[in-house]
Amino acid sequence: AKKSYKIDYYLKGMQATTLNALGKPAQKLESENVFHYEDDDTTAFATPIIQVFEEDSNPWEIRAKNGLMSSNGNLVLLKQIVKINKAATSKKPALNMITANLKIRPNDGYAETDEAVRINSGENWLISVGMRAWFKKPSRIKLLADVKGYYAVP
Questions:
Q1: For the CA atoms of the chain, what is the radius of gyration?
Q2: Could you tell me the sign of the dihedral formed by the alpha carbons of 68, 110, 14, 82, in that order?
Q3: pTM of the predicted model, to two decimals?
Q4: Secondary structure of 96-126 as H, E, C letters
Q5: Pair 9, 34: CB distance under 8 Å
Q6: Per-residue pLDDT tens digits for 86-124
Q7: Among the listed residues 51, 95, 101, 100, the one whose alpha carbon sits nearest the alpha carbon of residue 76
Q8: pLDDT, tens digit, 9 for 90 and up, residues 6-21
Q9: Is the alpha carbon torsion for 49, 139, 17, 40 positive or negative?
C-alpha cells in the first residue's frame, strides 16, 4: 500500500534564526513555502536558503530547489541542484560550489554528498565525485574521488 502524507500545517515566507550561546546568529533558514507532514513529522521546504554564520567571517550560504528535514531537525536533505557560496573577503576570493543531493547535519555544521561537485574560487577550480564539508571553524572541505583541478599561480 502506498503511504499518504498528510500536511498538518504550512508556512509561507518562513524565516528562522538559531542563536549561539552568546545570542549571536548561528544559522538562518529561509523558505518560500514550508509543509509539515503529520505522518512522519518531517518538514519539506521549497527553495530553501540556509546560512551558517562564523565569527569574523562571511557566512556560508546554501541554496537548493527543494529540501526535507527530519523530525528531530538533525538532518536536512537538499535535493536537485545545490549551490554553496561564501562571499569574498579582503584576503580571500569568493568560494562557490555546486552539487546535488546534499545531506546537512545543521547542529554539527557538516554537509556531505556522494554526487559530483565543482568548486570555483577566483580563477581556481576543483571537481570531484563526493565531498565532505565542515562549515564551522576550522572550515574545511574533503574531496573524495576523481579529483581534478586548476590552480592559477598568483
A1: 17
A2: negative
A3: 0.88
A4: EEEEEEEEEEHHHCEEEEEEEEEEEECCEEE
A5: no
A6: 999 888 889 999 999 999 998 888 999 999 999 999 899
A7: 101
A8: 889 999 999 999 898 8
A9: positive
